[in-house]
Write a structure and sequence with these properties.
Elements (H helix, E strand, L loop, with lengths): L2 E3 L15 E3 L7 H10 L7 H10 L5 H11 L15 H11 L12 H17 L9 H10 L5 H12 L8 H17 L1 H9 L6 H9 L11 H11 L2 H13 L1 H5 L4 H25 L3 H7 L10
Helix pairs in contact: 2-11, 3-11, 4-5, 5-6, 5-7, 6-7, 8-9, 8-10, 8-12, 10-14, 12-14
GO molecular function, one term: small GTPase binding
InterPro entries: Rab-GAP-TBC_dom (IPR000195), Rab_GAP_TBC_domain (IPR050302)
Protein name: Rab-GAP TBC domain-containing protein
């Protein structure tokens, strides 16, 4: 078990408090552990929640490592596309439209070859799962795989979307369920912030947070952290999106509380919330207080004392 200095009582207002020692509920994953995982292509000797936290503090993992880990974490070992069929003209039109809207600020996605690869991933999935076909948000997930040139991108993309498909099927039941859970967690764990959002008129959390679920948090996440996000998703599933959002809101609570205009809050949550989170992760990592931060924003829990 790792030991960290923190407050005995969690304080949502202060993520920097220095406190008495206590045991934290995770086992550290060392550099040699990651080497073992990558060599053996297995995580059977490790707990998923330990690996998830380690993705945050293992600064030595590079982009290539994260790409290789995607295939280690993948549970779909073999994949073949069914006999090719043309997806409906409706989905093809939607895909063509959204390909040009995917990461528009990145020159890489203005290159025709890369756009064609992105388009083909999406068309293939529409053929593979016609009940879902295509929905907005999927383009950013596919775009990340194309940008990082992940091997076997169709296999990885299909697996990711299959695990997330209840957010895309008709009526989006998964999205509504996730937003309801987020609202409950926000109300119970950060009540002052929840009250503030209600008072300024932000009653529908879907306005701000739907894109996080529909894009697996990728749309506004800095590119250097996108593979980390996908690896976390592979390990923990969509429930961790809600957990991360609550952690990010705890970190940005004071900033959001100062915003009195609903449009400014909406813009901050949609575009700056995740950026601020990873900036703070890097600062705390360099200052060797990352474990403390992760504890204070609820990503690490304390074990019962004997």
């Amino acid at each position: 078990m790792l030991v960290s200095k923190n407050s005995d009582t969690e304080n949502e207002n202060n993520t920097n408090s220095q406190t008495p020692r206590h045991n934290l509920s995770f086992n550290a994953i060392q550099k040699e552990d990651w080497a073992q995982i990558l060599e053996e292509k297995s995580i059977n000797d490790f707990r998923q929640k330990d690996l998830t936290l380690a993705l945050f503090y293992s600064a030595f993992l590079n982009t290539s490592d994260h790409i290789n880990l995607m295939h280690v974490f993948s549970q779909l070992k073999d994949f073949e596309m069914p006999n090719p069929q043309e997806p409906s003209a409706y989905y093809a039109e939607l895909i063509d439209r959204d390909v040009g809207r995917t990461y528009q600020q990145i020159p890489y996605f203005k290159v025709k070859q890369n756009q064609d690869q992105l388009r083909q991933l999406l068309l293939n999935y529409a053929d593979y799962d016609p009940d879902v076909g295509y929905a907005q948000g999927m383009n950013f997930i596919a775009g990340t795989l194309v940008y990082f040139q992940v091997p076997q991108p169709q296999k990885i993309f299909n697996e990711l979307i299959q695990n997330h498909r209840n957010n895309y099927i008709s009526g989006t039941p998964g999205l509504f369920e996730n937003l309801a859970k987020l609202k409950f967690k926000l109300k119970t764990s950060i009540p002052k912030l929840f009250k503030h959002l209600q008072e300024i008129g932000l009653n529908d959390l879907g306005i701000c947070f739907s894109p996080y679920y529909l894009t697996m948090m990728l749309q506004n996440t800095p590119f250097q952290y996108q593979m980390l996000i996908l690896n976390i998703y592979q390990l923990m599933g969509q429930k961790y999106i809600t957990k991360l959002l609550i952690a990010m809101l705890k970190l940005s609570k004071n900033t959001i509380m100062k915003l009195k205009d609903v449009e400014k809050v909406n813009k901050y949550i949609r575009t700056e919330l995740v950026v601020n989170f990873f900036q703070e992760i890097e600062i705390c990592r360099k200052e060797q207080r990352l474990i403390q931060l992760l504890f204070n924003i609820g990503l690490i829990k304390r074990v019962n004392q004997y």
